[in-house]
Amino acid sequence: MLYREAGQFKTTYAEDMAIFPIRQDRIALAILLGIAFIGVPLLATFHVWPFGSDYLLWAILLPFLILALAAIGTNILVGYCGQISLGSGAFMAIGAYSAYKLATGVHIPFAWLGFAISIPPLPVLASILLGGLMAAGVGILFGIPSLRIKGLYLAVATLAAQFFFDWAFLRIPWFTNYAPSGSVNAPALDFFGLVVRTPVERYLLCLLFVTVMTVLAKNLVRSNLGRQWMAIRDMDIAAELIGIRPLYAKLTAFAVSSFIVGVAGALWAFVYLGSWEPLAFSIDRSLQLLFMVIIGGLGSIMGSFVGAAFILIVPIMLNLVPTELGVPLSTQTITHLEFIIFGSLICYLLIKEPHGFARLISIGKEKLRLWPFPY
Amino acid sequence: MRAPDTNEIMLQVDGIALAFGGVRALRDVTFNIRRGEIRAIIGPNGAGKTSLLNVVNGFYHPNHGAITFKGRTRARMQPFEAARGGIARTFQNVALFKGMSALDNIMAGRTLKVRRGLLWQMLRYGPALAEEREHRHRVEEIIDFLEIEAIRKVPVGRLPYGLQKRVELGRALAMEPDLLLLDEPMAGMNLEEKEDMSRFIIDVNSHYGTTIALIEHDMAVVMDLSDRVAVLDHGIKIADGTPDEVKKSQAVIEAYLGVAH
Amino acid sequence: MVALGQFLEVLIGGLMSGVLYSLVALGFVLIFKASGVFNYAQGAMVLLAGLAMVRTLDLLVANGFPPWAAIVLGIGFAAVIMAATAWLIERFVIGPLVNQDGLTLFMSTIGVTFVIEGAAEMIFGSDVYPLRLFPTDAWFVLDGLFPGGILINKLDVWGALIAGILVAGLAIFFQRTKTGRALRAVADDHLAAHSVGIPINWIWFVVWLVAGLVALVAATVWGTKLGVQFSITFLALKALPVLIIGGLTSIPGAIAGGLIVGAGEKIAEVYLGPSVGGGIEYWFAYVLALAVLLVRPQGLFGERIIERI
Questions:
Q1: In a domain, B127, yes or no
Q2: Torsion sign across C-alpha atoms A24, A29, A34, A40
Q3: Does B129 fall in a domain?
Q4: What residues of B are in contact with residue C308 (Cβ under 8 Å)?
Q5: Considering only CB atoms, which chain A residues are within 8 Å of B177?
Q6: How far is A322 from C235, CA to CA, in rounded Å?
Q7: Contact B110 A224 (CB under 8 A)
Q8: Which residues on chain A are in Cβ contact (under 8 Å) with B181?
């Protein structure tokens, strides 16, 4: 069956409004979801190639899923709403540490007032979601300057968030429950009696989170709110003149973006790392997420996945290929090469294709529709 | 069927003055727009026409004077308040959302009519989906009206200028405005495109009963379309009246042809 | 008197390190004024200049060159590297991106940052390289007035001196030379400048070159203070809040902003730090910039922007 929409007539607006209006795309998506939800867990459980060891799950798929989720959050703010953020890492950290505090019980002593606020330890699921909400709240707070300042100035405001929270989680012992090393351990991942332990279970948990949140995010960006964000991004003055309130549009973008990034942060800490330090959420993480978004495609949900995959695969390839060829590179050289490759790719894409790999893919699809007779 | 020409004043601008630093863009301008009419504002370059529209829809805040719109008087308002009050606007240099498709641009014009909030839109289910379809339906009517069906999914940045102007008009119409401000809707168009655009303007006025104020340089178009014409020169209103009255005004002839000192 | 003495010492130390921020901020302002680019890569350029210089210098000294010759050649080589970098950036990144919005340009400079950092460390190494161009011992002044006197670092004085010379040099360059005047014309309106025959690509190359040389000067002072190492890029990042505070387009603003940040963060660290666990310096500049943005978005010395449509 050729990749063709001929003969697929749409008779209602609902059909035309579908995410994948072309049948072949829907089939491809169904196959992909089938592999992700059934194929991978089956293969991994029985250790069939390429899941002979847990390496593929642990070192690639798990980080890929979580970082793709964080990239979606970043993309909503940067790609859809056009508000630059160099502080995504901090919002991951807020999600992670809030979830940690909530899962281990919050105790705020107001010694001078003679009372204390105590919240008993919450279930893990509630902690993760509330961690996301906490990040959303702080996101709104740091989004307020965006109402008065634009573009580049906002970069500095988000840097302020990044450095302030880096510091707070490192230096304020309350956040780490006074752990002497400053490193904290995730609670047991107990979901209504179902305890998530093995890599396969962790993978499925993240997959579930990512799938649900991706659908919700996609719904938002193709609804009126998403159009408001893009309008603000493309021309904020004109947006205001058609009745879009910059306050509402920008702050919702900050809130939704920070919520997603915060949940991703909680998953990163709880499910992937298990125990962590503030370093896990440094400015390097923020820049990594920004790169995923630019490389994958500004203003594209699918692009966030492509970008995350690319950023994770390049270092592995740099490690693997030269070793196979008999000229292994030192880890330092690999890091430096990574820097150079990502940096030049960013510049190249910004010049040639600001919508990243996602646009390249859709151009490919357009060509495929006409194949093999392009005229 | 043309909206009845009542003499009801929809918008009254009183003694507006606007200055940027030392440049006085508008000086004590008073004028009004009646419900249902097509009102033209003309004048040489730099006469303050665009500034006047900017004051009307809240983008510039005048230094002096007051604006009365639909019975409410105020000195200043925010652009989105003007939009909510029913004032829509197109721009001299097309202010579309370049990264969005024509359809999304026009759909964005429905923002003020959207009732379901963030959570509903996120679920996109039941009432939220029904509402989205309803808006899509209204927008498709506008797309049909403006004859831009073929380009609805094209990012507007890729469209030729004439079509961009049409999409921009569509976005303004999607707001279902009471008052539509058009800033040089025919600038840079060829004759055929101008004829199309004139037809759209007349149709909007007669079908939807929308009151229209437009800035235009093409005198033939202005004299044909409009019910009343105001003439600005150097920020001052020098003439106001029906096309015929304005044509005969000595001040207008001098402003356009220059006068020997 | 002890308290006052200590305060003065902290203040002076802070102002002096503020001069270093100003040095980097100057490079930002130059590029922003001339091309509207908010250059994230300025810190990476300081690192590159420093590494190129210190590695050449070490190599030459190890091969028996006299120290003065090694220093001159080291600085010369670093200047050549900065010129090459400026040319590459203009030719392959900023040139093709002309007329793009500020956000795209900004993100492209983040890309440039990564390329420069990766390449610089790959070519010149990624350790800490000590550099001794200026004396680093201390003076004690006013010991008649305060017990023990006030400690002033000689290096800081050198830094202030160099910053002064640099600003004077830039002022002369902008006011008196043909290229400098062309540069100001481009900064006002690059299309108009282009239309009267100013070679715009050449001008942008010159701007990035001057910014590169400013980075080199900053690298000599910072390298002497901390050793040439990767973490310099993080310190240089503080030039961003410095600029926000001073105003993006103002050279006096860059200087004043640097001094305010330098003094402010030292004073905050010494007097507030102990009560919150220390390390305030890490974020003070950014939070201060955020506060300034909320009150006066154009910065203390910037011009108000009128939007048009």
A1: no
A2: positive
A3: no
A4: none
A5: none
A6: 35
A7: yes
A8: none
Query: By CB neighbour count within 10 A (0-12 exposed, 13-18 middle, 19+ buried), where does B66 fall?
Result: middle
What's at A332, amino acid-wise? Answer: Q
pLDDT score, position C147 = 66
Taking CA atoms, what residue in A is nearest to B55? Answer: A241
Average pLDDT over residues A105-130: 87
Q: What subunits touch chain B, counting only 3 or more CB pairs under 8 A?
A: A, C
Chains in contact with A via at least 3 Cβ–Cβ pairs below 8 Å = B, C
Contact B240, B229 (CB under 8 A): yes
Q: Considering only the beta carbons, identify the residue of A149, A237, A354 that sits closest to C293.
A: A149
Indicate yes or no: CB of A333 within 8 angstroms of CB of C92: no
Say which CATH number the domain at B244 has.
3.40.50.300
Is residue B64 in some structural domain?
A: yes
Element (H, E) at C70: helix C67-89
pLDDT per position as a tens digit, C33-61: 777 788 899 999 999 999 999 999 999 99
Asked if A227's CB is within 8 angstroms of B100's CB, the reply is: yes
This complex has an ipTM of 0.90
- Count structural domains, chain B: 1
- Percentage of residues in chain C with pLDDT exceeding 70? 94
Do C241 and A333 make contact, defined as CB atoms within 8 angstroms? no
Could you tell me which residues come within 8 angstroms of residue B92 by beta carbon, excluding any fewer than 6 positions away?
B50, B183, B184, B187, B215
* Chains with at least 3 CB pairs less than 8 angstroms from chain C: A, B
For chain C, how many residues are written?
Answer: 309
My answer on whether omega of the bond before A50 falls inside 30° of 0, hence cis, is: yes
C103 shares contact with chain B (CB less than 8 Å):
no
Exposure string over C84-106, b if 16+ CB within 10 A, otherwise e: ebbeebbebbbeebeebeebebb
pLDDT at B1: 39
- Would the pLDDT of C234 be above 90? no
Distance between CA atoms of B154 and B208, rounded to whole angstroms?
A: 27
Helix (H) or strand (E) run with residue B168 in it: helix B161-174
Angstrom distance (rounded) from CA A27 to CA A34: 10
Distance from CA of A225 to the nearest CA of B (A): 7
What does the pLDDT look like over A285-310, one tens digit per residue? Answer: 999 999 999 999 999 999 999 999 99
Q: What residues make up the domain containing B22?
A: 9-86+177-257
Q: What is the mean pLDDT of residues B234-238?
A: 88
d(CA A70, CA A91): 10
CB contact under 8 A, C112 and A152: no
Question: Taking the mean position of all CA atoms in its chain, how far away is CA B104?
Answer: 20
Domain ranges, ordered by start, for chain A: 1-52, 53-370
* A235 contacts B97? CB cut-off 8 A: yes
Per-residue pLDDT at B260 exceeds 70: no
The whole-angstrom separation of Cα B243 and Cα B249 is: 10
Report yes or no: B107 at the A interface, CB cutoff 8 Å.
yes
pLDDT of residue C309: 45
pLDDT digits (tens, 9 = 90+) for A261-288: 999 999 999 999 999 998 899 999 999 9
Confidence label for B3 from pLDDT (cuts 50, 70 and 90): very low
What pLDDT does residue A32 have?
93
Residue A88 has pLDDT above 60, yes or no: yes
- Mapping DSSP onto H, E and C, the string for B136-165 reads HHHHHHHHHHCCCHHHCCCEHHHCCHHHHH
Domain A53-370 class, CATH top level = mainly alpha
How close B153 gets to chain A, by Cα (Å)?
A: 11
- Would residue B98 count as lying in a domain? no
